[in-house]
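User: quick one, fold this
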Amino acid sequence: MKWEPAALMGLLILLGLWLVAGPVGGSGVKPRENAIVTDLRLGNTRGVVEVTGVAPEQKFRVLTRDGYESPEMTRPQFEATFGPGVAHDAADGRANWVFRVLNITSWASLFWISVGFGGQILFSGRMFLQWLISERHKHSVITPSFWWFSLLGGICLFAYFVWRQDAVGVIGQSSGIVIYARNLRLIAKQKRREAGK
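Assistant:
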């Protein structure tokens, strides 16, 4: 057994965890219960905008990961500081049922939801494909397409879990990606050996 796949697997796990917890993850921010919470990124500072109450009496607070909590602001005060577009996104953007169901804050986030669903479809499709081919041959058969579906689905899900800041999903896909790629390499090597005979 070669050591390189295990080392690559470990590196991919570390990269995924770093992407989740390092540059884009690990909020540590504690907003109030029943608040509308929207991610906030200002340069290297990250946190959330917390909105409580109902219009026109809404109160806004900025909470950053380094522990800063702004004083409460009215909507006009918040708009004067951050602009009406940010106030709309923070207070009204989550009113859209699609945003609430998918836990997103903008239509652009639908791209990442599509990547996640696409990866899951590929990942599920590999099992369906393997089952159909095995049934046709009356014994268990794992085709190269199974490994291609696995690799592409794993990569899509890895990217999606990084975007969702989901360490469990990143770890779950990291090892699989290396295994799928290794199996495709072994299949290619076997074909080259057989062609050389």
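User: anything notable?
Assistant: Strands lie at 36-42, 45-52, 59-64, 73-74.
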